[in-house]
Amino acid sequence: MTVFLERLLIIPVLGVMLAGGIIMVASRRVVRIGALACQYVFVTWLTLSFLPLSFASIRLLTGLITAAMLYLSSHTMDEQQPGQDRVESMTGRGFRTIAYGVVIVAGYGVFSSRWFVVSGLEDMVLLGAIFLVASGLLQIGISKQTFAIGVGLITLLSGFELLYTFLEPSRAMLALQAAVHLALALVISYLDVLIPGSREEGKPAE
Fold first, then answer.
1. pTM for this one?
2. Do 160 and 133 touch, CB atoms closer than 8 A?
């Protein structure tokens, strides 16, 4: 089964690219969180190219728990303030779409130039990691709200972790990475629920 998945690595790369686009342009948190959960699934798929299923499943479980924590905090806040699930105005969606397209093209340009190569790593895994890092940096760079910045940081870390896990494939390292993701989810949820200003909407840059 693992060998079969390794032969179809283009699918998770495209999935990572699509999930990043949804996170960038979607106007509702529940949609973004769903895309983040799918992104974790695709990252786990890419991880299977160099780690056994027992190791890679740690990343998947962590990702699903992280997405669930973000959903619960958003759901709780929406119950307290109905209608707050929409995290952004429609203003700026076109700009975000264009910016994301430019970043994806730039990321593919970096990959195709071959100036950054990790010996022994599958090309598709490297491309997926580049897309994740580029997408995360863009999300952090153009966002103002806690939730969007947090998701961008999670995306950025997922890209770096793909590369670092290949270089240091240990269960202890995976556990440490899982702890970081869960801690980020806790911090985002805390700021989201207890600091109302972090959920202000209607800002064009977000």
1. 0.83
2. yes
